[in-house]
Here is the input.
Amino acid sequence: MTGGRLGYRTNGNEIFLDDVTLSVEALGITLDTVGAGIDLNAPRVNGAWSVGAVRYSKSPLNHGVSVDATSGQSLPSYGGLSGDFDLSVRTHLAGGCRQGEGLRLDQDVTIHSANFLYIEDGNALALRDITGAYQLIDLRVDVTADPRGRPALGLTTTSLTGDLSIGSIELGGQGKRFGAVDLDFLFEDASFNGQAYTNALYLQGGGHADAGSQGMRLSTEWSLADANIAYTEDGNRVILSGLQSWGRGDVTLSVTRSEVRNGTQFYDGLRIGFEGVEAGYRINGLRVASEDSELQGGTELLLALGFYPAYEFELDGHLTLGPGGTSGEGITINSDVQIRNGKAAVIAAPYDEGSGEMSQKGLWLTELDYDSHVRDMTIDLTDEGLAIIKGEAWGTMNIGNLRVGDKDTGQSIGRFELQKYETGSSMMIMPGGAGTVCAGGMGVTALAC
Here is the structure.
């Protein structure tokens, strides 16, 4: 395929993949009846693809074209994409669903090799030498209702397990690398804080109520029972061990334009909304060098990035991704986020490997409310790295109690409130850590002002 175009339009605004190319070779595919179902086996699927630009349009005059009908200039772009893949795929299809008729799908996929590039104004963020596999068990597709009784297309699964290895993450034009990342994960039913969670997605029509009649709503629930993330640079490895996450709530998708509708401010771009999301995560600790090494603390080092060792919260708000950076291609972010009834660990007691439970002891921010607002934050790929510039940002963090000990019953030091306001703040994230003078040195360097 050459010269392809695929778009998503809501209420007259659209985002589309422009100048799509795709080539695929899949030889030796077999289709067999096995038991009460069908086995579709693709022993080798090779392909390459590219997207010249991901563009945005808010004028009916521009539907179906790549240039603005008024100015003759190319429509604003988020950047381009490209990649290649070599896969083996086995899929089993059968009838029957959670509630009578429907479709059941089981799938095993092996990624022998793959590469992915995000390209912006000639600079690339590249994920290279990707390998991995996943196994999807008992995915059911059913026309049904979500847990709140709303009509939906339901997708529910028993488990999803797999691993992914990214051999090299590269950024900029100087041949430097961040390093390598390895991930393994298990999504399955589990209980957190005395509540049972599963993995389900209920697709419904209609996005944010004020954005217009068109859009998409995803009533979601997830249960990440276990995951490990390893980062390796220059032969040194650290593992974020025992990540668990859970939650439920609504996510909305709408393509919007900068305007006020029914009292709600919208912005140009793809609006990802959060409504009534109740979620949390926790990390057991760090391991150094290998998965078998001793579990230790140290996750507190991530606090500077706003990442807590454990966090429970309620979330509402939106993140709108607009086209264009500081100049040319890129991404512009406008967001308004409200977090309520949060419980965040500043320091958490070590994970008890004997009982398999994380301790509730530590230093906790509780009764935490946080409002955060960002305007015109741009993200650009440059020859040196990733440039992030905040046009304007402000927020208020209200900590009802700073508790020592148990997160619910520990003694309180008192109440704190933190307010901040920024304009023109910037950060440059560059590949290559401290002392990496020679080309090819791995690591991460961040410069902020």
